[in-house]
Amino acid sequence: MLNLVLFGPPGAGKGTQSQKLIEKYGLIHLSTGDLLRGEISQGTALGLEAKKLMDEGLLVPDAVVIGMISNKLDANKDGKGFIFDGFPRTVAQAEALDALLESKKSAISGMIALEVNDDELERRLLLRGKDSGRPDDANPEVIRKRIHEYNSKTAPVADFYKGQNKFKSINGIGTVDEIFGAICGIIGAWKNK
Ligand code: B4P
After folding, report:
1. Domain-by-domain residue ranges, the chain?
2. What is the CATH number of domain 2-117+155-191?
3. Which of 14, 56, 177 is the best mutation target for the ligand 1 pocket, counting ligand atoms within 8 Å of the beta carbon and taking the most?
4. What spacing in Å lies between the alpha carbon of 12 and ligand 1's midpoint?
5. Does the pTM exceed 0.85?
6. What integer pLDDT is reported at residue 78 of this predicted model?
7. What pLDDT was estimated at residue 133?
8. What confidence score (pLDDT) does residue 46 get?
9. b/e string for 144-183 if b means 16 or more Cβ within 10 A?
């Protein structure tokens, strides 16, 4: 089973690369951002609570996203593995994910981080905001808040996986295919271990 955490700041290209990885490896894609946007579009109580925070560029509470991921793991027991996209975003989420997987006799294979500088992130997200309709992509102030949340709460998650010897990082600037090639190289090395 291949359980991959795709990591990086907002706009690093996690969602973009996930689409290509699903096709190549047949993995199940678990994006907490997509799951939360699904709750918002259905108008659930969870979605209404999440929307306020997301529109401000803030993280949603750990218990909410951990509960969503737990449900999805239970609903997809027989897959070839998972891509965790945008999750875990805090150390508490990383610890909870380890415990959830351990209870299913599984584990994270590794984390791959996409490195992109702040100016490029802001450029990409503002560009996407022009036609995505995502309120959190439309406003430079909200984008900067998301990057700040990443640096203060999410970046430490990399140390969590470094401590387990499961961390790799690559340059997230380049063509989508170049970056995909670098990710596949790392996965290939894990599979041959
Ligand atoms: P997410 O939905 O996870 O989104 P993201 O971080 O903005 O984007 P991603 O890195 O996937 O970028 P993408 O490939 O789309 O989070 C949204 C919000 O949800 C968070 O701010 C938070 O409030 C909440 N949330 C989600 N998960 C949470 C959690 N676990 N805990 C708490 N809160 C949570 O790429 C971006 C753009 O760049 C696209 O337009 C793409 O076309 C472009 N791009 C991609 N690769 C490129 C390349 N190589 N060159 C040029 N452009 C590229």
Report:
1. 2-117+155-191
2. 3.40.50.300
3. 14
4. 6
5. yes
6. 84
7. 87
8. 95
9. ebbbebbeebbeebbebbeeeebbbbbebeeeeeebbebb
